[in-house]
What does this fold into?
Amino acid sequence: MMLNLNQSFGHSDHEKGLRRETIEVEAITRREDVPLVRGRWESLALWCGCTAPYLSHEWYSTALETVDREKDPLLIFFRQGGEDVGLAPLVHSRGQGALRFLHKIGFVSNPFTPYQGVLHAGDFKSVFAQLMRFLEQRFGSRFVLDLDEMRPALHETQGLDELSMQEGLFLCRMKQKSGSRYLLLRKTFEENYQALAKHTQKEFKRKINRISRLGKISLLRVSGREQIDRHLGCFFDMYARTWKGAEPHPEFYYLLCRRFDDRGGLRFHALTLNDRPIAYLISILSGDTVYGIKTTYNPSYYAYSPGVLLFYKVIEDMFNTPGIREFDIGRGDEQFKREWTSSTHEQVRVLCYPRNLMWKSVTSLQYELLPRWRQNERFDACYSSLRRLLAKNRREAGPAAPGPSEQRQTVKEYEYAQCRQDSCPVTARLAGPGDLDLMTVAMEARNFAEIQQRLDQELCVLCFEGRKLLSFFWLRPDGGRQKGNGVPSYAVSEWGLRGGSTPLPPQDVLISSLLALIKDIINKPNCTVSIDESVCRSFELFE
It folds into this structure.
C-alpha cells in the first residue's frame, strides 16, 4: 500500500510556508512480502550507518516467525524522490477482551533485545510525524504506538514532546529505562585489564586458579549448523536449571544463530572444563561492535563463577579479531558487568496516542492524576490492596497447583520425594547420569569418570532446598546386615553436607525426615538405613 502525504517539516509557521516536501509511505502488511524487501532494508541500513543486528532484516523476520507468530507485520517504508529514506519495522496486534477495538503497534517482542528503533537517513522528527499521520489514517483513533527500548543517541526522542504539540497530531509520553552497558576496547587486553579495580583483578586471578584445580579450562568457538544445534540443546538445558527456568522461545535462537552464522557474524562461545561446556555466551559481531545476546551457565558450578570467567575469556578473545572497537554487553546491572565498565547507553520507552478526548483522559489519569493520588498514604494502601486482589483472582483462575497432601511430583525425568515435616523445606531424589556436573563439584572430584563409575555401582540420594543442593548420601547394600526376613539394608558409605538458607527443624527431626526421604526415594519403605554417629554429629551444622 502506498500513500502520498504532503507535510511541512519546519519548526515554525514561516518555515512551514517555505518548505513543503512530499513523502511516500509504503506499508508492508503481508508475511509473504517480508522476505522480498530484504535488499531494500539492507541498503537503507547501510546508508544510515546502522549495523546493529536488532535493526536487521534477519532479527525482524526471525522474531516474526517465532516469538511474534501471532502478530501481523507492519513494515513502513518512507520514500522521497524515489529513494527509501526511512523504515519503521513494526508489528500489529489487537487487544484482548473488552479492548478488542484497540490496535497495538510496536516493535517485535523479545525481552532480550537490548534496543530497537526506526531507520532514518535524514530528520527523525520528520519521519516520525509521517508515521503518526499514517497510523491515524489507517486506524483512526483506536491505536497506541509503543516504541520500547529506543536510544536517544540514535533518535531525537527529546524533541518528540514539542513535535506532538506543534503538529497537533498525537500525545507523547516517555519513560526512562535502564540502559545497556558497553565496553570500549583499548589497544590491548592488558590495558583493559589494568583499568579494572585492583581487588577485581585479584578476584579474577583467584577464581581462575580455583576452577583450574578441577581440570583444564578453555574457550570453545561454536560454528556450523550441526555444532550450533548440538550446543544450543546443551545451552537451554543449562538455562532451564538456573533460577530463570526454561526459555519460552528456544526456536528463536536456533533460527537466529543459523542465519547469522551464514552471514559470518555469529560468535557462539563455550567455557569448557575438561572439554565439557559449563557456560555459554551467544553474541553477534556486526560492524566494529560485538553485541551480547544471551548467556547461561551450569548451576552446578555456581560457586566457581563460570559466567564471570566466560566473559573474561571472551573479552580477551576479542583482541584476536582486528577491527572490534566495542562490546555491547546488553541490559542488566549485574556485578560482573559493573566490574568491566560503568558506561551505559541510555534508553527510553516512547508511548504515542491519537490526540482526542478519550486518550487525553486515559493518559492524564495514568500519568498525571494517579501518581499524584498515590502520594496519599491511605489511597495508595487501598490501590495496592486492589491490585493484589486482582492478581490473586487471576492466579486462582489459572491451572490449579498440586495440593499439599501430594508427596511426590515429577520434574523432567526425575521423581522427587517431599519431606513429611511441615517445617522442613527439603526434597530428595536419586542421582542420575545428568547429575555428573553437580556431583563432580559437590565432591570436588578431578574427573567425571570416577563419579560415573560410582553411579554404576552405588545409589546416591540428593537432597535439595529449592534448586540448591543441600546434601548427598552414597548408599551401598549392606549384605552383612541383611535381615532374615529378606528386608534389604543399606549403609551410608559417604555423605556430604552443605548449609542451607532456610531454617531447618531440630537435629533429631531432621535425621528422621531424611531417613524417611531415603526410603521413599529408593522405593523401599521397609528397608533399614544405617547412619553412623559421626554422620549424626555433622547435622549439628544445621542448628
Remarks:
- The chain is about 35% helix and 30% strand.
- Confidence is low (pLDDT under 50) at residues 4-20, 398-414, 538-543.
- Residues 377-397 form the longest helix (21 residues).
- The chain has four domains: 2-177+346-355, 186-324, 363-397, 408-542.
